[in-house]
Design brief:
The protein is of the alpha/beta class and 509 residues long. Helices cover 39% and strands 15% of the residues. It has helices at 18-25, 45-53, 69-82, 103-107, 119-128, 157-162, 193-205, 222-238, 257-263, 282-287, 294-307, 325-338, 383-401, 408-413, 417-432, 440-453, 459-472, 501-508, and strands at 4-10, 34-40, 59-63, 87-91, 110-113, 137-139, 165-167, 170-172, 188-190, 210-213, 245-250, 271-278, 311-318, 342-347, 366-367, 375-377. Helix 2 packs across helix 3.
Length: 509
């Protein structure tokens, strides 16, 4: 039995909530009387409520995010029906703004906005002493980072073995991109480096081999970046047959020579950079307060692809205020020409509290009123066209980003990547009416049909190319367009268990 329960609904089991672990680590005298119980979106609300109430808690702290707010609202409503005396405290980015407009906030007893590391602990102490603060909304106190107890000891052995471990060397962001909640930060604050490296050492000694840094600006302070890279290079040098996989978010136009000299030493499958381009249009960038030197950013992506073995995941956003299809297409084609391993084609969302909403009237931004608050239309892109872009995004993910069609992709895209893939996307949706549940064998046959209809290459070349991709990524069924003996390309084996399968396919292509 735990009087204090910390809970959330994660997008997937593999995602272990870093926020809950910060809260528990900082509970002070109440830490040992608390427990973390995580769930996954899609689980039955009644089953989640049953498991939480079985602990007979007095207080439940619930992390609320854009991906779980609807299910979390149902959960809070059920808990309040079943146990009206239970005190429910909400926290997280989804409930840190526009509190008065949210049904989930009305259902709960307290809402902590912003940072909750020390404010939740203070509230729990008051509640356990029988005190009930009069106000429902509590503004979280931003404690100095050295005063915050690190959360990494709260990762269990199961977490270390089976889940992504999230870590952060800093919080905040100095940039003001209006589509991001980090635009509200005044700057970035570093954790004490020696303490953080000691935490990494302990996690590594416990068997952790996948590390995802949630820092918004990993390469902002080069000396800190170098020290962290040196930590992982040291592990790789000492145990080359026991590699790690490390994910960082990278500022695209800030890659000094000292960082380049370090990055080139990382072997295959150990380093991933998530790089936010978002738009190549300088007018659109200025409109949303994004500072970016496009030519330098493009040159850095080219250099990373050419000179390193890092996996490159680059982000673009469709639906930014004032950007039309032609502008987005030009940026997309430019990015395809830089040849990153993945292009994350995102659709603009109106995060609660983000300054992007100031453009709503002038640029006709019409957002979905329900989570995830995706853009439905703008003055520059009408609703039917935006729907085409949404489908483009989904199909791009399962064809290009999956790494399963590295040979076929060049036939499909030709010298006009956006236009050619949009034509395929429109064709595929007209043909299937589906954006999900497309089995690999069916998708291979559909690609073959489209490529032949569009005369992207001679049919023999199309068939051979698709077969090479299909066999090379483990496909074993006999395909309808196979004729006679076929040179069956054996699937390449992953060299490292630390490297996720999707990234491994890109790096082996």
């Amino acid at each position: 039995m735990s009087p204090v329960i910390l809970s959330t609904l994660n997008a997937r089991y593999a995602h272990a909530s870093l926020g809950l672990r910060y809260l528990r680590a900082n509970l002070g005298d109440w830490r040992d009387a608390s427990a973390i119980h995580e769930f996954v979106i899609g689980q039955k609300t009644e089953e989640i409520a049953e498991k939480l109430l079985a602990e007979n808690p007095r207080v439940i702290g619930l992390g609320v995010y854009i991906w779980n707010v609807e299910e979390s609202t149902r959960l809070v409503a059920q808990l309040k029906v079943l146990a009206p005396e239970l005190i429910i405290v909400l926290g997280g980015p989804e409930v840190s703004h526009e509190v008065e407009d949210q049904h989930i906030c009305a259902l709960a007893d307290y809402v902590i906005t912003g940072w909750g590391d020390v404010s939740f602990a203070k509230l729990v102490g008051q509640l356990m002493a029988g005190e009930r603060p009069p106000g429902k909304v509590i503004a979280g106190v931003q404690a100095p980072l050295p005063a915050i107890v690190s959360p990494y000891a709260e990762y269990t052995e199961e977490d270390v073995r089976q889940r992504h471990l999230y870590v952060e060397a800093s919080r905040g962001c100095p940039f003001k991109c209006e589509f991001c909640l980090s635009a509200l930060d005044k700057t970035a604050w570093p954790f004490p480096l020696d303490v953080f490296l000691a935490d990494l050492e302990i996690l590594y000694a416990r068997g952790a081999r996948q590390f995802k840094f949630v820092d918004r600006t990993f390469n902002l302070k080069v000396d800190t970046s170098l020290a962290i890279l040196d930590f992982f290079l040291g592990k790789l040098s000492a145990a080359p047959d026991d590699p790690v996989f490390v994910h960082f978010e990278l500022i695209p136009d800030h890659l000094p020579e000292r960082l380049k000299e370090k990055i080139v030493h990382f072997p295959d499958g150990t380093l991933q950079f998530e790089i936010g381009i978002q738009s190549f249009d300088p007018v659109v960038q200025a409109r949303v307060s994004r500072r970016q030197k496009n030519d330098i950013a493009a040159a850095n992506i080219e250099w990373l692809k050419r000179e390193t073995r890092a996996h490159l995941h680059v982000d673009l956003i469709a639906g930014l205020p004032g950007e039309d299809m032609a502008g987005f297409a030009a940026g997309f084609d430019r990015l395809v020409g830089l040849a990153p391993h993945e292009i994350q084609f995102g659709i603009l969302k109106r995060l609660r509290g983000a300054p992007i909403s100031r453009h709503t009237i002038e640029y006709g931004l019409r957002f979905n009123p329900d989570p995830p608050y995706n853009i439905l239309a703008t003055h520059a892109v009408d609703f039917p066209t935006m729907q085409r872009l949404v489908r483009f995004s989904r199909y791009w993910d399962i064809v290009a980003n999956s790494g399963r069609y590295s040979r076929t992709l060049s036939l499909l895209l030709g010298d006009s990547p956006f236009a050619r893939f949009l034509a395929f996307s429109d064709w595929l949706y007209a043909k299937t009416g589906q954006t999900h549940a497309l089995a690999q064998e069916r998708l291979v046959h559909l690609l073959h049909e489209h490529l032949c209809e569009a005369a992207c290459a001679p049919e023999t070349e199309i068939s051979e190319t698709l077969l090479a991709d299909y066999r090379g990524t483990g496909g074993r069924s006999r395909l309808r367009f196979e004729t006679g003996a076929v040179d069956r390309v054996p699937p390449k084996k992953r060299k490292s268990k630390a490297t996720p399968a999707r990234q491994a396919r890109h790096l082996q292509a």
